[in-house]
């Protein structure tokens, strides 16, 4: 009888312990749910709609903003974390990522501030710059005719830029395909995902400073000869003036439309950068290039999947980071 009472007491104790553990886990989960769909449902219900409307207005006024938003997400999220570190200005102590050579040609950051100001009017101190950066990129893709991608939110902003490690994380257009594949794999993005994300080169432009090594002192024989005169016309100098805006449109056929024409171009040796050329010739990536050239639906499906993974790369959530008052400067630390 005593043994039975002891057993019941022991079971009761373990039941209480289990309930306590579940309760603690639930509390921790409630404090930091991570990234979730419609994170601002209660705190700023109109957040995503405000961003959408601002992107529409800005795109109507400045079409090129869509390319900037799309490039922003890659340059921010690929460098260790999706935390809007790209948007921070340089300080006396540290150089900003956006000041680095690898960020050459990036601009239109002021329009992120316009979106932030609109959100601050709607619900002050609630929506992070990192969520604005990711959602504006999503809306930019839609403006250009690409797919709408449902994305989780709840990111918080980092307090420092990471210029010193940018080269370590950000793939370069002249790197080998093995290095590019490895850097994307580190973010959890597989080979078809990499091929799809580079499909962003379907829109926008490539600055001459990134092309001239394929034109001077001799033209790269791997370039389609029919495409070379146009490239030489747009990039007439072996050493372009960095202050001059000299560029070639990535896709002459549909330069303002997010479509799969890019893949047909690179299969025809009209890829501007070495990474474009390698994508169409490397045995690991070529099968996916051919598949995306044939099917825009497949391209959109893989792009949406890879874009989502990129947007969720190591975010700050819960009590980590902060909600910046301005996207270009970290908040002042109060005593």
Automatic annotation (TrEMBL):
Its cofactor is Ca(2+); heme b. Residues 34-331 form the Plant heme peroxidase family profile domain. The active site is at residue 75. Ca(2+) 2 binds at residues 251, 254, 259. It catalyses: 2 a phenolic donor + H2O2 = 2 a phenolic radical donor + 2 H2O. Residues 1-26 form the signal peptide. The keyword Metal-binding applies. The record marks 71 as: Transition state stabilizer. Removal of H(2)O(2), oxidation of toxic reductants, biosynthesis and degradation of lignin, suberization, auxin catabolism, response to environmental stresses such as wounding, pathogen attack and oxidative stress. These functions might be dependent on each isozyme/isoform in each plant tissue. This is Peroxidase. The lineage of its organism: Eukaryota, Viridiplantae, Streptophyta, Embryophyta, Tracheophyta.
